[in-house]
Amino acid sequence: MKKQHHHELEYIPDGDSDGIDRRGFLKCMAWAGTGVFWMMTGGVLKSYGMSQMIDKTTGQLKKGLVLPTTDFSFVQISDSHIGFNKAANPDVLGTLQATIDKINNLPSAPSFVLHTGDLSHLAQAEEFDTLEQSLKSVKTEKIFYVPGEHDVTDNGKLYLERYGKGTNGDGWYSFDSNGVHFIGLVNVTNHVDGGLGYLGPDQIKWLEKDLKPLSSSTPIVVFAHIPMWAIYPQWGWGTEDSAQALLLLKRFGSVSVLNGHIHQTIQKVEGNITFHTATSTAFPQPAPGGAPFPGPMKVPEEKLRSLLGLTSVNYQEHNHSLAITDMPLIKSE
Amino acid sequence: MIMGIAATSPRPPVTKYTNLKVLPKDISSKELMGIMVDDFQDGLGVTCNFCHANAKDGHGLDFASDAKPEKEVARNMMRMTLGINKKYFKIKHPVIGNGALDVTCGTCHKGHAFPGGD
Questions:
Q1: Which residue in A4, A122, A289, B82 has a CA-CA distance of 20 to 30 Å to B91?
Q2: List of residues 6+ apart from A250 with CB closer than 8 A
Q3: Number of domains into which chain B is organized
Q4: In this structure, is residue B9 part of a structural domain?
Q5: β-pairing, A142-145 with A112-115?
């Protein structure tokens, strides 16, 4: 047991000079721990926080909720950090499993799952093995990955051995599903100052070529680890050369950009592009600028799961409707 | 349709590090990555390229290279940290990354690359 925690943010009940008051802290916590359920209808992507949908006592869809008809659906999960064992969450496997349970309790199985990176904490073989073993129980046809910076601390060697088959460069690729073009980008392998993400000229060139044959009416979903818009560059929460990629996407009518990395949900709409960041399945981080520095946020052990939104706490359920929810669930008469 | 397909592969051979001067030469990958991520990255609020130079081939980082002066500063900081723990806290065999240390990177850095102001 370490004498000192590795610089994790401490939970300070009554506020303190670090700027994290109780309200702000709980707000942060409400963002953590579950996946995002995405439904595509007529080229329009809509998202739902899974904590909102599943009744914590029955494990089934909440009574009275009816999901709209949809063309197909998929789930995004992110930042599992398998191998992390510090005070912010010593049981990241348990919280991942709770997320998997929620996926498996969705009214219809998602067509596939996107994992937007930081599968592992230290890019170790056993961490990738453990994640893979857990995700085998997800009821879906396929799981797609992009790496986070924690997955490539060996320059991506192990990650690419496992997940790089059929991909390009450092692991970028695209695929089509139900008329939607999905693009997995890698913005964690090459580094720029300040910890910002970076795509690099090779990948941007590939993207241009990949998009070229598509008609402008094709719905596009881009997914990558580090946010592709400047959420908080002071903490490295942005991608230095994302503007070049976004320029290539400008001609398309419907573009959704899905990211992880910041362990909380933030949404922004800019012209034809909707940006979303997903929660972590492992631990929360402070809101942008809401603490002196980013990093795992520690809470009392007995409160972690409830605050992650996996079991109870009305507060959390009521406050889950952050930017994550594009539209409310439809309530039956 | 191109997909990233997860597949279990044989365990990689033990990584040989070629330019370790403070950390143990036989350190495991897990121990080394733990120090880099938990002590340096979180403790100083930096990412790998703060100390490590970009690889000449343009792919990732050249971890063995000493091209960036920050890397040597990091070594000196580790020597200082070990010295403080040994001299003032009477820890017989201090090791960076070991939870038994009284003084760590985060003690002074507190999430910032330069304690006391960037």
A1: A122
A2: A271, A272
A3: 1
A4: no
A5: parallel
pLDDT, tens digit (0-9, with 9 covering 90-100), for B1-23:
344 444 445 555 567 899 999 99
Of B12, B34, B104, the CB nearest to A122: B34
- DSSP annotation string for A171-197: TBEEEEETTEEEEE---SSS--GGG-B
State the DSSP code for B36.
I
Is residue A284 within 8 Å of residue A297, measured between CB atoms?
yes
Per the CB < 8 Å rule, is A175 touching B1? yes
- Average pLDDT on A246-261 reads 93
Is B4's CB within 8 Å of A3's CB? no
CA distances from A94 to A69, A100, A136, B1 (A): 32, 10, 15, 33
Place of tokens 């976004």: A246
Residue A53's SS3 state is helix
DSSP category for residue A168:
B
Q: Decide if B87 is inside a domain.
A: yes
A 10 A CB-CB count for B1 gives 10
d(CA A118, CA A122): 9
Predicted ipTM of the assembly = 0.84
B115 located within any domain: no
CB A240 within 8 Å of CB A196: yes
- For residues B37 and A7, the answer to whether their CB atoms sit within 8 Å is no
Total residue length of chain B: 118
pLDDT digits (tens, 9 = 90+) for A150-177: 999 999 999 999 999 999 999 999 999 9
Closest CA to A292 of A12, A20, A104, A15: A20
Query: Are A6 and B42 an interchain contact pair (Cβ–Cβ within 8 Å)?
Result: yes
Residue A15, by phi and psi: left (phi above 0), alpha (psi -120 to 50) or beta? left
Domain-located, residue B86: yes
Q: What is the pLDDT of residues A93-134, one digit of tens each?
A: 998 998 898 888 887 888 899 999 999 999 999 999 999 999
Q: Identify any residues that bridge with A92 across adjacent strands, giving them in sequence order.
A: none
Q: Which domain holds residue B38?
A: 29-109
A293/B3 touch (CB, cutoff 8 Å), yes or no: no
Chain B positions in Cβ-Cβ contact with residue A155 (cut-off 8 Å): 55, 59-61, 63
- pLDDT for position A69: 66
Helix axes A125-135, A92-104, angle to 10 degrees: 30
Q: Is the pTM of this model over 0.95?
A: no
Mean pLDDT of A187-195: 84
List the domains of chain A with CATH numbers.
22-331 (3.60.21.10)
